[in-house]
């Protein structure tokens, strides 16, 4: 599938929301290329929209909820799975309530209306993302690993906390296998969960018409199970809907054990972070944008003993609060540079790392090494404007914790250069003791 796709014409379906119990009318509309999938609340003033992106996920208890301001859309995963299963990249999902209809608890009815509307290719190319390295994740009892692959595959094992109804299934996802192997799998719950769900205001629209209930060893349903492994296949259906929040198709093999909406969305965040790494690496040590016509580019000014203040640093590095990890350059001589970072109690990351026991994350110490090393590379660029592209970090070691009140001394030494490739060794010290170290590699390229 080389081109993006959308619907040929609008497709509509009406029903009841699983958790809200509200009557809802849903229409899926064609959308322009590169616009992605978004929800539109036509029942609210201004018809606000929420993009189907992981950045907008607000809740993952029993289902996936998207929110923007005070506007929410609950239980989005089944309709998103249907669009993803057919390879639809761009669509607008209009709703006159806060949740798509649950239908029969699967994606079957959504597949029917999509088929009736038809799918058309668009001029712009699709750009699937293939992981550059395996991505591993563990959230509670859930473990997930995404490996690079030429296609999209899911291998899944599901079970409850007591290990009941353990099931396994694996398949490559194509429009045909999606429709045949996964789309009809219904949502399910265990009988002992129902009281909790009702007390928490959920499953107001739930019934045996749209869910399978497991009680002890019995399966309560209005019809026979649709697949021998219907429960794990529904988990895979949920995975597809949640993974579509990446905003791009994936070429990879996902292996999941006891998946959940929370873990699915966290995996999307991990994938998105890996996607951004090349972009961040390209931008990490880029000087500020070129001045427009009529403007003069101010050169960094060092004082007479070689010290560079933060204003001069920011003229060479694009980093700003809260990601600038060097406050001052104390010394630059030949192949060495020494920077300083004051670690204060006001650092924003201390709110979560960790409450009551603040410690500077090791990766931010590595980032400090990279930024100071980047300054050294840029200063060594003697001809024209050059950029230092961060390529790799090796032999990274964290030896002692860094806490509020510490002064981080960052010492960098250029180890070797080969053509446009430069490798440096960095050491972070607090009160003369090494707290972390790493070897970082850069490539120098001419600025555009």
**Strand share of the residues?**
25-35%
The termini sit apart by: 34 Å
Please mark out the parts with pLDDT under 50 across 5 or more consecutive residues, or reply none. Answer: 295-306
Give the class-level CATH name of the largest domain. Answer: Alpha Beta
Helicity, in percent?
A: 10-25%
What is the mean predicted local confidence, pLDDT? Answer: 86
Number of helices: 8
What's the total number of strands? 24
| CATH-defined fold name of the largest domain | Thiol Ester Dehydrase, Chain A
**Total individual domains:** 3
Counting helices, strands and paired strands, the structural category is: alpha+beta
Q: Specify the CATH architecture of the largest domain.
A: Roll
User: What Rg do the Cα atoms give?
Assistant: 26 Å
Task: Based on Cα principal axes, name the global outline.
Answer: elongated
> Largest beta sheet: what is the strand line-up?
19-20-22-23-24-21
The largest pleated sheet is described as:
6 strands, antiparallel
CATH superfamily of the largest domain: Hotdog Thioesterase
What does this molecule look like?
With 448 residues, the chain is of the alpha+beta class. It is 22% helix and 34% strand. The chain has 3 domains: 3-125, 2-Layer Sandwich (Ribosomal Protein S5, domain 2); 135-280, lpxc deacetylase, domain 1 (2-Layer Sandwich); 285-291 and 299-446, Thiol Ester Dehydrase, Chain A, CATH 3.10.129.10. Strands 19-20-22-23-24-21 form a 6-stranded antiparallel β-sheet, covered by helices on one side. The longest helix has 24 residues, at 261-284. The protein starts with a strand and ends with a strand.
């Amino acid at each position: 599938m080389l081109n993006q796709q959308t619907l040929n014409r609008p497709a509509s379906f009406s029903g009841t929301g699983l958790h809200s119990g509200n009557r809802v009318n849903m229409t899926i509309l064609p959308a322009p290329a590169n616009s992605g999938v978004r929800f539109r609340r036509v029942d609210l003033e201004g018809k606000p929209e929420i993009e189907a992106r992981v950045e907008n996920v607000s809740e993952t208890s029993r289902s996936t909820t998207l929110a923007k301001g005070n506007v929410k859309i609950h239980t989005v995963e089944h309709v998103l799975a249907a669009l993803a299963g057919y390879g639809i990249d761009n669509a607008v999902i209009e709703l006159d309530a806060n949740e798509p209809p649950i239908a029969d608890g699967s994606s079957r009815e959504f597949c029917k209306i999509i088929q009736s509307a038809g799918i058309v290719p668009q001029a712009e190319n699709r750009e699937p993302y293939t992981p550059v390295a395996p991505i591993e994740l563990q959230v509670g009892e859930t473990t997930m690993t995404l490996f690079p692959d030429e296609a999209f595959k899911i291998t899944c094992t599901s079970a409850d906390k007591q290990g009941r109804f353990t099931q396994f299934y694996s398949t490559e996802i194509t429009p045909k296998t999606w429709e045949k192997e996964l789309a009809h799998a219904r949502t399910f719950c265990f009988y002992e969960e129902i009281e909790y769900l009702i007390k928490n205001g959920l499953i107001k629209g739930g019934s045996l018409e749209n869910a399978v209930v497991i009680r002890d060893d019995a399966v309560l349903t209005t019809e026979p199970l649709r697949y021998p492994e219907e429960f794990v296949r529904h988990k895979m259906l949920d995975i597809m809907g949640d993974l579509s929040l990446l905003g791009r198709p994936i070429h990879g093999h996902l292996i999941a054990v006891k998946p959940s909406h929370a873990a699915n969305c966290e995996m999307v965040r991990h994938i998105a972070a890996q996607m951004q790494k090349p972009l961040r690496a390209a931008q990490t040590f880029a000087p500020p944008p070129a001045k427009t016509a009529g403007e003069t580019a101010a050169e960094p000014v060092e004082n007479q003993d070689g010290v560079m203040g933060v204003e001069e640093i920011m003229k060479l590095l694009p980093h700003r609060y809260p990601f600038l990890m060097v406050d001052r350059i104390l010394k630059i001589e030949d192949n060495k540079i020494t920077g300083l970072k004051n670690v204060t109690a006001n650092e924003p990351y201390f709110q979560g790392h960790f409450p009551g026991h603040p410690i500077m994350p090791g990766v931010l110490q590595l980032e400090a090494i990279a930024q100071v090393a980047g300054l050294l590379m840029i200063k060594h660029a003697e001809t024209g404007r050059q950029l230092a592209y961060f390529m790799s970090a090796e032999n990274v070691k964290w030896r002692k914790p860094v806490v509020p009140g510490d002064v981080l001394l960052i010492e960098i030494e250029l180890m070797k250069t080969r053509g446009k490739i430069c490798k440096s060794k960095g050491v972070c010290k607090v009160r003369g003791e090494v707290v972390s170290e790493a070897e970082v590699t850069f490539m120098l390229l001419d600025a555009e």
